[in-house]
Amino acid sequence: MPNLKNSFLLSLTILFLSIPITSYAKKPLRDTSFKNAQTTSKFYESMFDGKKQNKALLHLFFNTMPKGGDLHHHYSGSLYAETYLEWVAQKGWLIDTCTLTIVKRSQKNECELLSVKDLMGKPKLYRKLLSLWSDKDYGKYIHRQPPPDSNFFNTFFYFEPISHAYISLGLEILKKRAIYENLSYIETMLSRVGVRSSNYFDANSSKTYNQRLRAATSQEEVDSLLDKIVNRYSHDKRFSTSIEHYVNELQKSHNAIDDANFTMRYQTYAVRVLNPLQVFTDLFSGYEAALKSSLIVGVNIVAPENNAVALSDYTLHMRMYNYLARRSPSVHRALHAGELTLGMVRPKNLTFHIQHARDIAKAQRIGHGVDLSYEEHPLKLLEDLKKNAAIEINFTSNEFILGVKDEHHPYLIYATYGVPLIISTDDSGVSRNNLTNEYLLLATRYHPSYERIKAYVYNSIKYAFLETSKKEQLVRDLDKRFMVFEKKMAALSKTLGAVE
Fold first, then answer.
1. Does residue 403 register a pLDDT over 90?
2. What is the three-class DSSP state of 421?
3. DSSP alpha helix (H) spans, 255-347
4. CA distance 190 to 167
5. Is the dihedral of CA 205, 210, 213, 216 positive or negative?
6. Confidence (pLDDT) at 165
7. How far is the C-alpha of 149 from the C-alpha of 317, rounded, in Å?
8. Tell me: the pLDDT tens digits for 9-32?
9. Alpha carbon distance 244, 285 (integer Å)
10. Is the pTM of this model over 0.85?
11. What is the rounded average pLDDT of the residues 73-98?
């Protein structure tokens, strides 16, 4: 079997040389596997006939194909509304028939409260709930509805009370789904650590810090303020106890997840629409948790990037990351950045988000990166990304939230320029989607070669926030999985007479 260096070199050169990844010691086996890879590539191409595409066969192809990892993945947004309703029923909680929100106990209410069982006995109401708790049926009917981005992000409000009630079970559900789809790794954004700044700073102190952080005009000013906040937390036993509790609970939830065929790791995050003191508290506590647990491999920042607070505090948030990156350089950084498009915000807000995520926050991966062509220095940015970071591509959510798809999507620029790309799901429960369909969209919209698609799969391990030994293991596993897959596809193409 090859070492990691050889596997990664093959993965990189595949974009330019179109040489299928094969890595087997004995010559007859090497020749056979090389031939199977060639046949698989030809079989894939046979599914495209001019403007006609055999989408059913392509779906079968991608459902069977090894997919490596899903690196842009939200835990709560990846579970289906139906699963959350099952958990609501287990808790004995109720649903408000007017708002279709969760009510934790029977109480006097202007509207009728229903059990989940009774709710499901009312098909029209149940269907309405699914359309609020996910994107189900959003574009199928003409009806009163919020804008797409609001509909998407509003879903979290509905299932938030139950989303983390059964984390062990939720992780097991995601694992089973991943194995069915032939994934070997998920890196999921699980939750905030849960430290509340209001428990450590009184109202006046909080107000002062929030005002001074927002008024700061340089990294040095921000650093000085953050030093004081860190000092407060570092000398309070309650803070370290909260970190330890989070780490211990995560370990319990994770216990049955990793095995010989599957691995899961976690990111914590901050919510960018909150006040600066709380955002930094979330980031700092996330960093401290990552330093204590090898299961926590990165710290992200989430929530709508076009929110008024998120826009006004954007550079401040990037400076917070800069401070923490210098303080704890071993903690990985993946950031949602550039999840914007023309008309969603003023033009000035499209000119720097990805750039600041790289130049200031030192992000190692960028989630979405859709506003690339609006950035002030796109060519400089592309060159930097090509050398130093990877882009997490999320076709379904980009289309739904931003209305960006097909020839308008920056995938075409990133791919042509050679920026490392990773195909991801984002919130597959909300969008009622999966990774197989993301690859299907990739193929049917842009028709990249099989070799390039395969390179994206290997990227999902190469750019994962994992220790080297685990990456080596997962790459070896991918080599084996592709050998099996290509043997199956070679046989199928012969059966169908697709490739002579």
1. yes
2. strand
3. 276-292, 308-312, 314-327
4. 9
5. negative
6. 87
7. 22
8. 334 333 333 334 333 344 565 789
9. 10
10. yes
11. 95
Measured distance CA(280)–CA(223) in Å, rounded: 12
Q: What is the DSSP string of 210-261?
A: HHHHHH--SHHHHHHHHHHHHHHHHT-HHHHHHHHHHHHHHHHHHTTT-BTT
Query: Please, are residues 369 and 337 in contact by the beta-carbon 8 Å criterion?
Result: yes
E strand or H helix at 193: none
- Strands of 263-271's sheet in order across: 68-74, 183-191, 263-271, 296-302
SS (H, E, C) 402-416: HCCCHHHCCHHHHHH
In 3D space, the residue among 418, 342, 331, 432 whose CA is nearest the CA of residue 382 turns out to be: 418
Within 65-202, residue ranges assigned H as helices are 75-78, 81-91, 116-120, 123-133, 148-163, 167-180
| Inter-CA distances, 87 with 8, 91, 100, 132, 153, Å | 42, 6, 15, 17, 21
Return the structure tokens found at 23: 């890595």
- Please name the residue that has the structure tokens 């059966």: 495
Largest CA distance in the chain: 76
Report helix, strand or coil for 268: strand
For residue 270, list its beta bridge partners: 301
User: Model confidence at 8, in pLDDT bands (50, 70, 90)?
Assistant: very low
Residue 176 has pLDDT above 90, yes or no: yes
